[in-house]
């Protein structure tokens, strides 16, 4: 079998497998419930019960998802993956009884705390896997150029962690909507959620219409969440294939002539890239080849007095801009002014 045929077969299998899973676990149960009752044939008291369960359950699930996503980053930095895997083995019923043993009264607060404790280990694992691949070189270069920790987090780390944070948030949201154990034990029956609605409709009251309404509501929430996670991950991977991370904000860099420094003694952050990076392999006119391409030497150049001679510029071949264009280096003219920044984008120009 040729490589083209095998690649087409792989793509067909990748498309067919999610479709089969969707039909087996979503369409087939809905058809069974549809045979039992019509979701639009609900009595007035059933409509009120569905509306009350969704209003309370969605509010509590949003709180659980937001807390889990916010606490996942510090927990991923502090705890090891092995410890997080051990926390995943703790059952939700034991967590609910432990929360009640702390002295909390059964209610929405105890149920929310139980769900946060249950969703947090998996959220931290997702974020921790993403933290291992964050662009350390660009973050260090931004720190050398004077960017604060908030600017570095907003420009580099947050776009990188966005798929993992969104996946953790969606997971905790769906956990809160479909949970039964936490709201049954720690909630004490005071918070009637979609999970309890479906459980009671199927097992206790034999109300297929009410159960189908709850299942359809969860699908309406789950499918957009999956679409957002897939879209965010695909967008990040596209940026990664191009070799850059799109910054959230850009600000024009103070541009000065060659051999001088911007006003204020250092470069502003974030900055737009120089208009024409040098990838020709020849030394730019008016500069000597540098022995080091670190951002520390670039920062020392900004700190030099105005009247002194410029510091040696970094070699154009060491710039990340040249990484993808070295094969076309012969067609590039030499630079008129070099850039001292290590990173690709955002960057500063002298």
From TrEMBL:
It is found in: Cell membrane. Residues 54-229 form the ABC transmembrane type-1 domain. It is a multi-pass membrane protein. Residues 247-350 are annotated as: Disordered. The keyword NAD does not apply. PROSITE patterns: ABC_TM1 (PS50928). This is ABC transmembrane type-1 domain-containing protein. It comes from Plesiocystis pacifica SIR-1.
